[in-house]
Amino acid sequence: MKITLTRIAIALSAALVMSGTVTNPASAEKSMKSKQLTMLKVGDKAPEWKLPATSGGDLSLSELLKKKAVVLYFYPKDGTPGCTKEACSFRDNFKSIQDLNAEVVGISADSIDSHNKFRNSNSLPFKLVTDSTGDVRRAYGVPTMLGKWPARVTFIIDREGIVRHVFNSLMCEEMHVTEAIKTLKSINQKTSS
Questions:
Q1: What predicted TM-score, i.e. pTM, was given to this entire model?
Q2: What is the pLDDT of residues 49-59, one digit of tens each?
């Protein structure tokens, strides 16, 4: 009976996360009473951030936007199967994204050492940044999974700093890249017309 209830609780938590609801099974009542995160939506101004990066030193959104649009993807944890699949999908499509005048940046709470190991073991050509406090995750309204790890959410930010697309899916890791490319093509078509 206990195993079945645990499985039901995990499935319910995953469903709530995928729907964008902030959830923490250990304190569900408190979560419902407290102010819930509001995820950024299309048309919102992306909050500025400056975080430690795998390239050494800090990286900021404003510096990136001087040159290109930004595909900012939040992911739960370095080295996990889903996060590796997502990162490798961005890696395999990196040239296509760059050709669409955009830069990819992955963001999680993992340390720079963890990011560097993850990046090197998967030959990732893009930068990873560390949001160790979770402040950027909260500023973007990215919910947590089981109250611990950030969900898997990708924001496409144009050169003016405006969110042009948000894709939130924990289980469809490779769709984050598909959605990013589709949105970047649409942005480029509008700016060339």
A1: 0.80
A2: 999 999 889 99
Residue 31 has pLDDT above 50, yes or no: no
The catalytic site residues sit at 83
Q: Which CATH number fits domain 2-192: 3.30.565.10, 3.30.300.180, 3.40.30.10, 3.30.1380.10?
A: 3.40.30.10
Q: How far apart are CA 156 and CA 102, in angstroms?
A: 9
The two beta strands, 58-60 and 50-52, are: antiparallel
Distance CA 135, CA 54 (A): 19
- Do 40 and 61 touch, CB atoms closer than 8 A? no
pLDDT given at position 171: 84
